[in-house]
Amino acid sequence: MIELQTHDGVPSGAVRGDWELLLEEDPAATIFQGPRFLARWAEVFGERTTVRIHTVHRDGRLIGVVPEAHEREGTPTGPIEVRRFLGGTEVTDYLGPISRPEDRADVTAAYLGHLAEDPNWDELIAGGLATDSGWAGALERGAGDHGLLVFERDEEDVCPRVDLSGGYAAYLDRLPGKYRHELGRKARKLARDAGELEVVRIPGEEVADRLDEFLDMAAETEPDKAGFFAKEQIRTWFAALADEFVGDDIFRLHQLDVGGMPAAATVSLVHGGEWGLYNSAFDSTLRQLAPGMVLVGELIKVAAEEGCDVFDLLRGDEPYKYRFGAQDRAVERVTLVRR
């Protein structure tokens, strides 16, 4: 028997523990869809959001989790009740349900059946779905069975990803020659023109005190996003994320020193054999020497040596990402309404 249970807020105790285990069993799931990340998101950003976590069970065993956010939004014709998958896209690169692959259809049916019986919503904007996870297709196929209409299915964004299977040497062999030579040339030029290079991993106990430096550098790197990085809420978010994950070696802060001075820095989230480049920054006075590119190139080597299969550059199709041989992973959005 399949049963859907609804929890107010991110659950604790046994349910949360089972959710963590299920996260490891879904090959398409990411740290962004786990209870720890989403609980922190709700603490920092969820003041105006009602959090509902739907858990799907078969004969008492957890087979799926659908983290949901309820929001009331204004439109030209009046306010509407909107459902989304939990986690704002400003800071969350992948969203959506999780389950073992063989349970996707049952979890989708249970969730859509619940929606069909709930009169208190107008739209489900189901975004953040990695195309290879199968969730967008499952929602589209299942909608009609429950009296729901697929208003739109589109590509929301892309996450360029680097294949590290086989190790670093295999990665270099796959990388087009012009890009492979460019990486080496940039590192040599930076060292020649600015000083000796050293990649430094900031010790966990120092990360909290160094985050403001990183965010200040990020604001200078991207002037159009300076206001974003200056927000107190965003600084609180990075601090909360570090507090949650530094101790588990998931949250990592790296710095590239050039001639003994910081030239670039990155925040990464490393989980389940995937290295996610969450944010990056560099000294804008060294822009022509590409210290950020050099640091990312070095981190790809570190990730491969650690045994990661994927280096995910996360959301955005910035041209620099493809110079590392990254291939797009589409992120889809399905909007459902009542018939």
Can you describe what's shown?
Helix 2 runs antiparallel to helix 9 and helix 7 packs antiparallel against helix 9. Strands 1, 2, 3, 4, 5, 6, 7, 8, 9, 10, 11, 12 and 13 form a 13-stranded mixed β-sheet that branches. The protein has 339 residues and is α+β, with helices and mostly antiparallel strands. The longest helix has 18 residues. It is elongated, with a radius of gyration of 21 Å. It has two domains: 164 residues, 3-Layer(aba) Sandwich (Aminopeptidase); 144 residues, Gcn5-related N-acetyltransferase (GNAT) (Aminopeptidase), CATH 3.40.630.30. The mean pLDDT is 95.
SSE topology sketch:
Layout (H helix, E strand, L loop, with lengths): L1 E7 L4 H13 L9 H11 L4 E9 L2 E13 L6 E6 L12 E2 L4 H14 L5 E8 L4 H9 L4 E16 L4 H7 L2 H18 L2 E5 L2 H18 L4 H5 L1 H14 L5 E8 L2 E11 L2 E9 L8 H15 L4 E3 L14 E12 L1
Parallel strand pairs: 4-6, 11-12
Antiparallel strand pairs: 1-2, 2-3, 3-4, 3-5, 6-13, 7-12, 7-13, 8-9, 9-10, 10-11
Helix pairs in contact: 2-9, 3-4, 6-10, 7-9
